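Let's do one together. I've listed all components of the complex below, 582 residues spread over two lines.
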Amino acid sequence: MLSTAQRHSSSSKTYGERSEDPDLTPLAQYLLRLIHLKQTNLCVSADVHTTLELLQLAEDVGDYICVLKTHADIIDDFGDKTIRGLNEVSRRKKFLIFEDRKFGDIGSTLQHQYTRGPLAIVKWASIVNAALFPGPAVIPALADAARRAILAHNTSMAELGPPPYFRALLLLAQMSSAGNLFTPEYTQQCLHHARQNKNFVMGFIAQQSLNKEADDNFITMTPGVQLSAGGDSMGQQYNTPQKVIGEQCSDIIIVGRGILAARDRRRAAHEYRKQGWLAYQERVRSARKKR
Amino acid sequence: MLSTAQRHSSSSKTYGERSEDPDLTPLAQYLLRLIHLKQTNLCVSADVHTTLELLQLAEDVGDYICVLKTHADIIDDFGDKTIRGLNEVSRRKKFLIFEDRKFGDIGSTLQHQYTRGPLAIVKWASIVNAALFPGPAVIPALADAARRAILAHNTSMAELGPPPYFRALLLLAQMSSAGNLFTPEYTQQCLHHARQNKNFVMGFIAQQSLNKEADDNFITMTPGVQLSAGGDSMGQQYNTPQKVIGEQCSDIIIVGRGILAARDRRRAAHEYRKQGWLAYQERVRSARKKR
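Okay, and this is what the predicted structure of the assembly comes out as:
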């Protein structure tokens, strides 16, 4: 799979070139433009427990990231203040918010989990992810809920808000944790159903680019990235930006502990951004030479 | 797999007999005793959106159920009032609370999702479930978080509360939704790791009993039960109590819409309880005849 991914045309294109694909869902187009202009393929994983910590982290790393990945359900005081704060920082510093909910239920339950309850994810996160295990109906169920949320949001000029108010989905196609049970057949099904739902599925959480057919232009985000490879005691395994972007042709590195545990988070984010961007430039350059 | 399940000794034992197994995790033992004494293998799925509706439903069906299954994240005003109310009704009417969270992340994230945030699930739900896709480390991660929560709860006499303050896990071993990607190999892995972690894993969410080895005594809960078979437009598929308990040797039927959408929920719960219990009695009786 790796060598196929390396040969796919998307690995030799710039983010800017890829953003011009007219088949992209609007949010994917927006994100590729953002990465291109801001020159960062870094996503930071905000594994913090208070609104204050979350907003402070967003301030610290906001200039260096394209996406902030959240787990709203581990923020003890999550509420309106969290949402307003996140919206404000993300607009000012220009990054997207990705709630790493890993939806994995049947259609009717999914729709409620996406739109209701204390988290009401659809209202503030433009990207969410879902596993495909419950079956392909998860995609139209979430797409439909997103469509209705967008319509409900855009009902009056006063509430119209700054564009883009888009929503898109990443399928959880692979994981990096030890002994995980994601089979190649499962990953293949994710790719298949992503192609069937290009108007809502923007890409994958995966270890490598899954683009194979000529017009595949999915965005791959890869978690578990650190500057040095290794693991933790609970099955997490780490890869470097060079390996993930350079060799495995992923598009966005997701970094958690490597930045959160750093004494100077701003500096660490700056360093990861640099490494991720260098790996990307080098990959595109070397792929073009080969042609 | 079905015929094996039917031949397994657990399908010919009463819930009372099965509760005497000294290898059971305390909560499994408690639940089997509860089912035996209350004569109900019915779990109601509380897919409602307000604390008021949730507590009203618990009042209505509480006398007829052994477990109330919740989705806390779809309750718009979920908070301390919800938890206090649920605890009060569940103690008075004697049923366990099962938060259908379907955990599916890496160990460190899982622990936070289980114990922190607006939902703080470990504090009020004695049963939760998890998928095994991220790898077997999910089980010790949750078990460890549960152990610490139990210790933290039992720190003073004032907070000791009525026993039992136990926690246990159901592995998401199979689903019923159309086109789901749960393979037999995955289900087998769930069984394998459940056996390795009997002190915390009480059983499975599955379509049928997975008990195979002589000393397997796992509790199976099966969702998607209605009095007549069928499906919805989003991939959900229904089975009857007779099929689930009688033929597939599951232990607990999970009923959602069949009771929630009924004009008289109390009456509907009474009817499902009766059907589930008859199917169980008939199964045990016929299995004993064959011996």
